[in-house]
Amino acid sequence: MQTNEDVIFSARLQENISHLKERYADCFDVVFHDFSCGQTPAVIVYFMGLTDSDMINRYILEPTLKQLSEDGGITLGDFCKCLPVSSYTMIQTMDQAVMEIGDGNVVLLMDGEERAISLYLAKWEQRSITEPEAESVVRGPREGFIETLMVNVSMIRRKLKSPDLKMKSIRIGRFSQTEVVVAFVSGIIESSLVTEIESRLSRINIDGILESGMIEELIEDNPYSPFPQLQSTERPDVVAANLLEGRAAILVEGTPIALIAPATIFTFLQSPEDHYQRYYIGTAIRWLRYFFAFIALIGPSFYVAIVTYHQEMIPTTLLLNMTKSREQIPFPALVEALLMEITFEALREAGVRLPKQIGSAVSIVGALVIGQAAIAAGLVSSPMVMVVAITGIASFLIPHFAFGITVRLLRFPMMLLAGFLGFFGLMMGITLILTHLFALRSFGVPYVTLSTVSNLSQLKDILVRVPTWKMNTRPRIGVWNRYRQGANQRPGPGRGGRRR
Amino acid sequence: MIVLKLLGITLLFVAVFIYDFSSVDPKKKKERAAIAVITFAGWVVAVMLLFAPGLPGPTEWINQVTKPIWVIFYPEG
Amino acid sequence: MDKEKVSNLQLCLMMYLMIGGTSILVVPSFTAMYAKQDMWISPVIGSFFGFFSVTVAWLLYRRNPGLTMIEQTQRLFGKWAGSILGIVFLLFQIDAIGLITREYAEFIVQAFLPKTPLVMIIGCIVLTCSFAVRSGVEVIGRFAQIFGPIFLCFVLAIFLFLLPEYRFSNMLPILGTGIKPSLKGSLEPSVWFMEFIFISSVYPSVRKGDNGLKGGLFAVFLMMITMVITNFTCLFLFGESTANLTFPFLSASRFVNIADFFSHVEAIVMALWILGGFAQISMWYYTLALGTAQWLRITDFRPLVFPVGLLIGVFSIWVAKNFQQMLHYFPTGGTGSSIIALLLLPILLLLVSLVRRGGARK
Predict the structure, then answer these.
(1) Which residues of C touch A439 (CB under 8 A)?
(2) What percent of chain A has pLDDT over 70?
(3) Which of A235, A460, C25, C111 could link A466 by a cystine bridge, Cβ 3.0 to 4.6 Å?
(4) Where are chain B's structural domains?
């Protein structure tokens, strides 16, 4: 039964206990342990799986039992001073007690006291820190977030030790009471951004939050857009880097995926590795990635448009070959393309569910075998299979999964447009997508900010990856806190250190 | 055939009309009136064109009206 | 939502694309018809009108800050006269946009999709642009910012790639028959340059501190350069027979042949043209929708976008029975109506504005 009033503890232990027992009726994992501190009866309440009973024995019961010899009552205040527990709080209402118990802490109630203390002795089984599978790098840290919020917070603290790294905590979810932390570096970030994020979070009124994805959907700018407007990552170094650029991170208890706001289209096309490798490599791979992201979107459409409407564009020798291979195919190019693409997507999705060892083998073998068989059966032509394969690989170059899926899905309407209206349809599709992208905003920041020719320094991290010693300014997100490093950081034998 | 085209055109105009009409506050009479008038005018012209494709268009009228001006430059017309 | 702002550069490119798209298609053949080998001089003469229009628009804006032309007519002429003048202006716009859309659709059908019904193409163009317009001027500005330079680059690229094929002697004799042919040929381009007056509908959206005058003048300059380059390309390639081709620059791009591989790149070129066309029509569409809303004294033009789109579609079909008739309209009624709406009307506005201000100051 839900009551809305918050009941303050009464001085009588039995009343408090019976109230709590009523709240926790039918919960077999709640423990009510009676003991006495000297003459005063006391009770500790906790969830069995969420605390370490060894700690309870050693840090609460042992010192308590030593007090048995004392006469007279002991107040809670005195008791606290004797307990070898370093972190605890005083609580005064039932709701607070329930929340603390839910967090895994131990609540101690004493007779005659209108307060109780909550001891931070929570401990549970958690995953060890491993490299995130979806975001692995060749060079860079191999840590990934885990499901426990405090551990994730500590990972970020280790990267940014300054007290300017702020972490604000909110509880969201009526039944889940999930703890959500907003992290930012004050002094770099624009304060209105923080207020905006906080207000959007506080607006959420939902039964429970299970994953950061739910929060993302509830606070994004444009819920109808296929494009993600918050970045999500499992890597603490990515979070730290973004915090240093003036963005805010949202960490959610129970999931290793952190959210970063605001996001622009370029954040989705960057990989952390770009910054750890040498800048030539970073720039080159970045260009490769942009090019292939573009191909992933319009590859099949381009092929369909040319083959169906603009055959004159193909160089003659290639054209002859293609005609030969397409002679036997009963379908028009559009149908062929749709068929192959859908099959490819199905294969890929199936591969995700299979166990690791079988999964990759099936995808590769499946693709090859099916492709070959389809060609042999005369259902599709080999150029088509080539195009589909290249497009598939191209979509894997996009580092961010959600964005990659969006691009993959948008391929299909583009294919339809190209199939019906040729190049014109393709251009129309591009125009429509661009119109949408140009109008999209993430927390007030325009999604596509290439419109900064007047401010060339912004392009330093977008078009190319400029050497670290040249990245003097921060990206412009709202108010611009300009300089991130001192001037003249270029290294060389004569700079710092001794000249040979 | 013509009936189908007529139906198609009417449907299109009605769809646009409904979409825009409902997206504007009922209080804003002026906007709604504007939407209604423009859509209706467009529909009228579309239907006219459907039945009389050779209808003299604005080009012919403007040609006549502005003749005194362009005749200076292009006496050969 | 705060009022959207456009930067100076975006303004410049928006205007450039607004006038540039179609003009490149047809200008060479017009100028060639009258100016023959001096066809490259005509755009230079025509650009005078462009600079003039931008200046007039700028002056009007300075005197009536924050207002577009329609609003200015209402302000300067009062309710009744202002509305009549306003509707003349609007009617011109809708006629023009119908023509431009028609021209583009014809181009696409002829070049790309011969079997597709014209209505379909017009519908697609209007639909796409309506989304852009509905999203606001900022989106159009960004679009122009990306495609303006690309457009210009491609014009340059084609010019350069065709260098091996040029016969420079086509240019001679320069001014052989005097300046008169160039003047006659400059009539058409001048009409197009007069359309720069529409910059006044974007001026209210320009970011504070950005110089709209410079942006506009630079746009005119870019337009002139583009036209000169296209004319040169056609002149050196085709000589005087440019006049016989409908889309000379397109035909020119067909000649591009690099290493025997990059032949037939005209498809890519045409694709870029289409994008430029979207930008152009979006700009005209925006001006029209905004103007209509302002004429009716409605604050937000967004709900009007789709109905106006339907009107545009209908007008594009109504405007001409066939392509030839449409082309014929340009030197005749087109010139006449443009002179009235784009030249006389703004000058009238400016004079009244000057007189009024003069009166108030005393």
Answers:
(1) 135-136, 138-139
(2) 85
(3) A460
(4) 2-73
**Cα–Cα distance, A428 to C121 (Å, whole number):** 10
Inter-chain CB proximity A424 and C136 less than 8 Å: no
pLDDT in tens, C24-34: 777 787 788 77
* Inter-chain touch C128–A310, beta carbons under 8 Å: no
Written as six digits, the tokens of A290 are 């942009």
Mean pLDDT over residues C43-54, rounded? 86
Q: Mean pLDDT across chain B, nearest whole number?
A: 75
**A207 shares a domain with A162:** yes
On whether residue A249 sits in a domain, the answer given is yes
Q: Which whole-number Å values give the CA distances from A22 to A13, A18, A25, A48, A112, in the listed order?
A: 14, 6, 5, 18, 21
pLDDT by residue (tens digit) across A380-396? Answer: 888 888 888 888 888 88
Q: Do chains B and C touch (3 or more CB pairs under 8 A)?
A: yes
Buried b (16+ CB within 10 A) or exposed e, A77-106: eebeeeeebeebeebeebbbbbbbbeebbb
- Given this model, what pLDDT does residue A499 score? 45
Where do the domains of chain C lie, and which CATH numbers do they carry? 8-353 (1.20.1740.10)
Q: In chain C, which residues have their Cβ closer than 8 Å to the Cβ of B68?
A: 336
Average pLDDT score, chain A: 82
Taking the C-alpha atoms of residue C105 and residue C274, their distance in angstroms, rounded to an integer, is: 10
Helix and strand element counts for chain B (H, E) = 4, 0
A248 and A295 share one domain: no
pLDDT at C120 over 50: yes
CA–CA dist C342, C335 (Å, integer): 10
Taking residues A161-185, what's their average pLDDT?
Answer: 91
At A306-348, the pLDDT tens digits run 888 877 777 777 778 788 777 778 888 888 889 888 888 888 7
- Residues of the domain holding A190: 149-263
Helix (H, G, I), strand (E, B) or coil at C115: coil
**Cβ separation C333–B66 shorter than 8 A:** yes
Task: Please name the chains neighbouring C, where neighbouring means 3+ C-beta pairs under 8 angstroms.
Answer: A, B
Query: Which chains have 3+ CB pairs within 8 A of B?
Result: C
Match 């979207």 to its residue by tokens.
C278
Residue with tokens 């039918």: A26
At residue A147, what is the residue type? E
Q: Do chains A and B touch (3 or more CB pairs under 8 A)?
A: no
Predicted ipTM? 0.87
pLDDT given at position C2: 44
Number of domains comprising chain A = 3
Residue count of chain C, please give it. Answer: 362
Question: pLDDT tens, A33-66?
Answer: 888 776 778 888 889 888 888 888 887 777 777 7
Asked if A121 and A213 count as a contact pair (C-beta separation under 8 A), the reply is no
